[in-house]
Predict the structure of 2OG-Fe(II) oxygenase.
Amino acid sequence: MSNAPIIEEINVWTTPLYVTQMPDHDFLKDALLAAIYEQKAAQTTAIESRIAPKAKHALHESTLDFLDLADANIMEAKRTLEELILEIAASVNQAFWPEDMEADAHIIESWYHVTQKGGYHDAHSHPNCSWCGIYYLEPGDAATEGNGGLNRFYDPRVNAEHYADPGTAYLGGHGVWDFVPTEGQIVIFPSYLKHSALPYFGEKDRVVIAFNSIIEAY
């Protein structure tokens, strides 16, 4: 009879990210692109939000209320995104919410990025919200090898790489996860997760709608 001890594995402090496809993307895409390019043409500066302009290069960014525009297609996109956020938040928090709790998801900030060749956005995170997301309306040539334009997510365990030997190989070596976008995809992630848009070298514009959200209970 073996006297080997029973070793229990306990995984803690995981970081959930969710990837899905935008419902009705084929129907919404052209109208959303038209609204973005109409607003982009009216911009008086590349970074209309005035937030961290030195962290952004060769891209146009709107003010932080794009999904609040009074346009039927934009309103439909916002409604759908809020439904997806709520579904994710309810799922991941199910064990922590009271049984009779009701909740709503509210997108409190939203903006577009139109990124040209050579454009990028340095690493950052989003305060004052709980869930963030990126809707890849037109990823351009990002899915083609060598064209960049990927979103890079960084290991939130800040001390994970302070020492490396064969015992730390499971950490992944570089502490990053690169997401290769395809048209119509949405990635939703916790607001504390640091991320960046890597330099983009495609010829077509890379167009995304990004958003920050909160969950309210009642």
Remarks:
- The first helix runs from residue 25 to 42.
- DSSP finds two helices and nine strands in the chain.
- The chain has a mean pLDDT of 95.
